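Entry 12.
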Amino acid sequence: MDTRTRIILAAELATQGLSISAIACQLDRHRETIGLWLKAFRIEGVPAFLDRYTAAKKGPRRARQVPGAVKRLVWAIRTREHDCCGQKIQYFLARELGIHLSVPKIYEILAERYVLRSRGRPNQPRGIVPIATAPRAVIQMDTVVFGDVFAFTGVDIYTKEADVVLQTGLTSEHGAIFLRTAMTRRFTGSVQIIQTDGGPEFKGAFAQLVHQYCTRHRVARPYKKNEQAYIESFNRTLRKECLGWASYRIEELPALQNEVRAFLNRYHYHRPHLGFTPMRPPLTPSGEGQDGLSDIYGE
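Predicted 3D structure (tokens):
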């Protein structure tokens, strides 16, 4: 018995006063399906519903499954882009291959191969943090420890531009060196606020020098990590996509500097940032050289 016949019989049995469950049992269809049919009968009538049903069945049905080749592309981009999120995979699929998939579908594909972890509870209250409405309004700075090597990091929370300086110590003198370097080669212009935590590397020599580069130096409140959310996010990216969670020796510093330089090039000119709508990298190459950072790093 084909479906059209079942639809006609369902209408006749309903006029005889049979319940939805009884009709479903007789026609070997789920009761929810019968319920939808009867609802359509009441709204548009049996002939109109049959015509609509027949028209919907004409022609080949569009495949619902994503082709295996596209799935492999999704997995390849995930690996190539350092386990990036679904939004970034969507960006690269459209930009490089002209393939358009929804973010939920991308995560469904990723779940076939990877164990995906939750990012944590959303919409948590955040501490007070200066709002940036223009470039150089707020620069957040921090440090990351890699054994005997220390990464001093900074990010413009509006443009998402960032800088990293690797050093062999965590003193205020090293903080001052980072400040001079970053403000000269990356965060040029009139800076309103430089925000740091209360670590010793941001006191002493750093504190004496910082007002040459900004109007105000703000120290984030202790135990309020969300006040440094932008730089903490960048630090996580630096670990995940560049230096990892390893400890390094001082003699490895030259090689690490090359890795950081390549990472910053990729971060600024290739890797899309979720903070922009539509997503895009923080900067666009404009004749700086093949790697995009030749004017900053002198190569």
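Annotation: Residues 287-299 have pLDDT under 50 and may be disordered. Strands lie at 138-146, 149-156, 162-167, 191-196, 214-219.
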